[in-house]
Write a structure and sequence with these properties.
Elements lengths: L2 H15 L3 H12 L4 H7 L6 H40 L18 H14 L4 E2 L5 E3 H4 L19 E5 L5 E4 L4 H14 L1 H5 L7 E10 L10 E11 L4 H16 L4 E10 L2 E11 L9 E9 L1 H6 L8 E7 L1 H9 L12 H4 L4
Helix pairs in contact: 1-2, 1-4, 2-4, 5-11
Length: 351
């Protein structure tokens, strides 16, 4: 065995002994680096006689090729070992059950609104939807709010910095009451002939749930919240009907008869007389506490006129309640902000 065969075998042994990339590169330098063994042999060719230089150079180049082949094989071995180690570390046991994608569910407010709609539908009420950007006239003037009413100020209502094609200011609706006006006006237009000749007009029964906006934010208020307005108009609708309707609603919504309901005198520009509706449960964690759940009243004659109806013939009641507050009472939630934070730990309780 000549010196070159010995060098090749030594290189192969060193490459095979390397278990990391750095060790392999250090071994490479000992043979193929600028000061490596093979490089020194190539540099010594210049001192050989011309007759020996060609044959010796060929032998050195063949040894170099063998060492480079051994180096490449060692690199592939280390890469394969690294990949095998990574696969072992990230091994997937396909016999285990897979991770199921979580199923979604309705938001507690959506569940509450659906429940409200179903209950009132069972009592013959339609469900109306309308624009969330309203005119000042629809939001306030049509509902008998005077020009200087505090609700019309920018500190209480979000205004849009444009006007409609009639020059009226627009706002994010502060309540869904404008839908009462829109629905009643459309109803009056459909039955204008009956109204004109004195025939009885079909009653108006409608609720209008939806998003509303006010400049307010704390544990029990949010700049965006939900309201559900209701309207029942006819020729012989009284507070007695309102009490029957709302008592039935509370009974169905909370699934209990164990409560008291009262009307507390109040004031709203769009109703006269007006009343807050309070309930008190006789048992449970809220037992004995009067809780305000809605505002209500007989529709004001000026508002009836804005419906396109005659207040001497058509009377009825309106009410407004907050689905967010009803959801808090039904599910025992003490902070309204939890409803809108998007925290899945909270929302998943209702799925």
């Amino acid at each position: 065995m000549n010196d070159l065969d010995t060098l090749v075998q030594a290189a192969r042994a060193d490459f095979d002994a390397a278990h990391q990339g750095a060790e392999l590169e250090n071994a490479k330098a000992r043979y193929l680096g600028k000061s490596g063994s093979l490089t020194d042999l190539l540099k010594g060719l210049g001192a050989l006689p011309a007759a020996e230089k060609k044959s010796r150079g060929g032998e050195i180049n063949r040894a170099k090729a063998a060492i480079e082949a051994a180096l490449q094989a060692a690199r592939e071995r280390l890469a394969a070992e690294e990949l095998a180690a990574q696969l072992r570390a990230e091994a997937l046991d396909v016999t285990l059950p897979g991770r199921r994608r979580g199923t979604g569910g309705l938001h507690p407010v959506s569940r509450t609104i659906e429940r409200i709609e179903a209950i009132f539908a069972s009592m013959g009420f339609d469900v109306a939807e309308g624009p969330e950007i309203e005119t000042d006239w629809m939001s306030f003037t049509a509902l008998n709010n005077p020009e200087n009413h505090p609700a019309r100020s920018m500190q209480d209502t979000f205004y849009v910095d444009i006007k409609d094609n009639q020059g009226r200011w627009l706002n994010l609706r502060p309540h869904t009451s404008p839908m009462q006006v829109r629905y009643a006006r459309a109803h009056a237009a459909r039955h204008a002939r009956d109204i004109a000749d004195g025939s009885p007009m079909p009653e108006i029964r409608v609720i209008a749930p939806g998003r509303t906006y006010r400049v307010d934010s704390d544990a029990t208020h949010s700049p965006m919240f939900h309201q559900c307005e209701g309207l029942w108009m006819g020729e012989n609708i009284s507070f007695k009907d309102l009490k029957v309707v709302f008592t039935s609603f509370v009974r169905e919504f909370f699934e209990t008869d164990d409560f008291d309901l009262r009307f507390r005198p109040s004031f709203f520009p769009f109703t006269e007389p007006s009343a807050e509706i309070d309930i008190a449960f006789r048992s449970g964690p809220l037992a004995g506490r009067w809780l305000e759940v809605a505002g209500s009243g007989q529709v004001h004659p000026n508002v009836v006129r804005n419906y396109g109806l005659d207040p001497e013939r058509h009377i009825g009641f309106a009410f407004g309640m907050g689905p967010d507050r009803l959801a808090m009472l039904r599910y025992g939630i003490d902070d309204l902000r939890l409803m809108f934070d998007g925290d899945l730990r909270f929302l998943s309780q209702f799925n």
